Amino acid sequence: MRSAVVMLACVLGAVVIAGCGDGGGGGNGALSKEDYEDQMQALQADLEQSATALQDAFSDPSDIPAMSAGLNDAADIFDDASASLDAIEPPDDVADPHQVMVEKTASGANAIREFADTIENANLQELTERLPEFQNIAEFGELEQAVDDIQAAGYDIGGSGSSSSP
After folding, report:
1. 1-41: per-residue pLDDT in tens?
2. Between the CA of residue 62 and those of 58, 70, 117, 147, what are the distances in Å?
């Protein structure tokens, strides 16, 4: 069960990099590299606070209702992050991976909600058996790859993708 908490923290870390906040693209065209980095780093702080609060929901693996509620909270954070990312106009050289982050954060929210619904009435054994479904949500890996792609393009967006340690 501890691995599920660690994995959710890692996934939220990928979204932390994506950010959650007021966006700021403003429709004035693509941001400069520096402005993009600044916005992504600033947005990271907002989500870090949310991710910390979510860890409390996973502190007792036998409290499945709390875990289900925590997963729904995580899905809400993913939705907020997707909206915030969508409001940012990235530089052209990272527009594609940035759009992947927008899309996979939104679809990741749906996948997390589906898993929360699946386990809502489960017992601990059923939860343990279903955990691989959560660990294999495709959007998580695709988000990490998008972060890696942005960083490989030379952007410091305030964290790291799949090569990071939580």
Report:
1. 444 544 555 555 555 444 443 444 445 589 999 999 998 88
2. 9, 13, 16, 33
Backbone angles phi and psi of 22, in degrees to 5: -95, 10
The pTM score is 0.75
Convert the pLDDT of each residue in 130-155 to its tens digit.
888 888 888 888 988 998 999 999 99
Amino acid letter for position 140:
F
Of 164, 143, 152, nearest in space to 18 by CA:
143
What does the chain look like in DSSP terms, one character per residue? -HHHHHHHHHHHHHHHHH--S----TTSSPPPHHHHHHHHHHHHHHHHHHHHHHHHHTS-TT-HHHHHHHHHHHHHHHHHHHHHHHT----GGGHHHHHHHHHHHHHHHHHHHHHHHHHTT--HHHHHHHHHHHHT-HHHHHHHHHHHHHHHTT---SS-STT---
